[in-house]
Amino acid sequence: MRRTVGTVLVGLSGFLLAVGLLAQFYAPGVLKKTPLDINTLTELAGEGSYLGAPTTPVKVWKRTQAIAESSDADVIVMRDFSCVMKDEDGTAPDEPVCLDDTDDRLISASEDLFATDRVTAEAVNDVTYVGTTAEPHEGLINKFPFDVEQDTYQVWDGVLGRTVDAEFVGEEEVNGLNTYLFQVSLSKEPFEVAEGVPGFYSDDKTMWIDPVTGSFIDQREQQLRELEDGGVALDLTLGFTPETVQANVDSAGSSGSQLAILNALPWVAYLLALVSLAGGIYLLRTAPPAASRPDDGDEVSFEELTGAR
Fold it and tell me: CA nearest 198: which of 207, 188, 206, 208?
């Protein structure tokens, strides 16, 4: 019995070792990828002044959707539509409705097509995914990579049309979820306020990022666009709404729990494999010797061979 159990345990240790190797080297490549069913709504609120008008409440919503038919195992293609509106009387429409160009409450409406690597979250500009008319992008656009590091990342700034530094500045808990804080600080960067109209762009943005999934949890931003003569074209102070923050926390917590299990699984499997191997070897070594077989020179009757009495 000891020999049988020992043999089973040795075989089980090999199986557990294989499970651990798969969980460590194969599963992350499958699970640590941006999913292809992204369809998120981000709502922001704050206040702003447009073209020198008095400061009023501002409402912003942004819809980000994956284009699954253009994506593949390595790259995801996404379309992002955003609407920035004055909301002085609280009547600005909710997504998916934006204001008409003739409505003086509309500040801006924009659409963006981009592709990113599903693991690193870096921009991909291959025409196979985004065609020939999409604006080239660089760096990180709508998320950070999985397993975020406490470092400086290059993130895309759509106003400047290039990447800017997002510096790690600390950690902070948001609704029970630990996050990494990243800061973007720009002051009077030259840019075109409108076509042929030079000006300056300043931005002070803080991003709360889930370190496990790389997803945005919260964001606060103060953005200023000025003319060369000092006139203010746009002055915005915005942040994610509490509802958006909580939805982000819930999503990141669920995904993070699954990835935490994935990270622990290889080491649990290796430990169990080691215990099984040690137990199997011990039982095999301590098992009583098998019954001796007859010497070749001995005569064995048919009855002895078959166990007959």
Answer: 188
User: Do 133 and 101 meet the contact criterion of CB atoms below 8 Å apart?
Assistant: no
Is residue 105 within 8 Å of 85, Cβ to Cβ?
yes
Residue 75: which of 21, 114, 18 has the closest Cα?
A: 114
**How many alpha carbons lie under 13 Å from residue 217 in its C-beta half-sphere?**
26
pLDDT tens-digit series, residues 77-111: 999 999 999 998 888 888 778 988 889 899 999 99
CB atoms under 10 Å from CB of 213, counted, come to: 25
pTM: 0.76
Strand blocks (E) in 130-255:
153-157, 162-174, 177-194, 197-209, 216-227, 232-240
**E strands, 67-161, where?**
75-86, 106-117, 123-124, 153-157
Looking at CATH, the fold of the domain delimited by 35-259 is given as Lipovitellin-phosvitin complex; beta-sheet shell regions (2.30.230)
For the sheet with 106-117, list strands across it: 123-124, 106-117, 75-86, 56-66, 39-50, 232-240, 216-227, 197-209, 177-194, 162-174, 153-157
Domain ranges in the chain?
Answer: 35-259
**Axis crossing angle, helix 242-286 with helix 2-21, rounded to the nearest 10:** 150
